[in-house]
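Throughout this chapter, every protein is written as a compact record of paired, labelled lines. An example of such a record is reproduced below:
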Amino acid sequence: MPAASAIRAGVVAVAATLALAGCGLGAGSKPSAVALLVTQGFGAQTIVSNPAPKIVGADTVMRMLERNATTTTRYGGGFVQSVDGLAGGGGRDWFYYVNGVEQQRGAAATRLHNGDHVWWDRHDWSATNDVPAVVGSFPEPFVDGYGGKRLPLRIECTQSASRACSAVEKVFSGYNLIASLGCLLCSQYNQSLRVLVGPYATLTADPAADELAHGVGSSGVYARFENGGRTLALLDAAGHVVRSAGTGAGLVAATRFGNQPPVWFVTGTDAAGVAAAVQAFNAATLDQRFAVAVLAGEAIPLPDSRP
């Protein structure tokens, strides 16, 4: 059994145990403003898009999926085998995110909360089976948080008065979100949703940013910065470099460092790359994307599917 399969098997075993107690939580208050999205291929193909799915009482993520799509499970109901006839296996399986954050528990043990946007995606996990955060549920998790808890928003800029930081702050103000502005690593409070803005070479002191130089196995982002941050390499689903770009290449992505909240990046190879990333920092461009690279004005979903 490959190492990745062994890890997933362990997760499944835990999920199956939790499922015995958590699959049918019907009693309790019904959460509001919940949405369900089911896709495959890292968001490339939509299977179910339901902004108002059927929910009964205090449903779990698994029960909501079963009520709104034809679903088969394994391991005592703790692991999704198929959705609407699309089955896992052969290096492709079902993963789920709540408000853009990969969950640490099985879906049968994860309760729904107000404002939860649940995203299931069937994709190739040969490069990594751990994508800790995705950008495709924007403006979540900034509006409703995750796990039923809202977190403070902090924008950390390498140049706090820069035009890019002001533009990012303006995007959040459009959602009536108030962000604190500061320099990189100036705050010791690490329970905030942080957005790092600036050329990648100026962000590397942050441990979460450092992961973007080590590839998808480290960051969960299908891109990596090379050549001291002056080059952005775009990876395919298998983790191979498809193409690279230098001047003006931008990236909007998210990851996590340890158990800290997700960290988002509006970054690039240089100031022009950051400006390009700012242009992509909106709900329309990020929708259903795991991450987005910007090359020559084109927003490219990651992983890169170019032959």
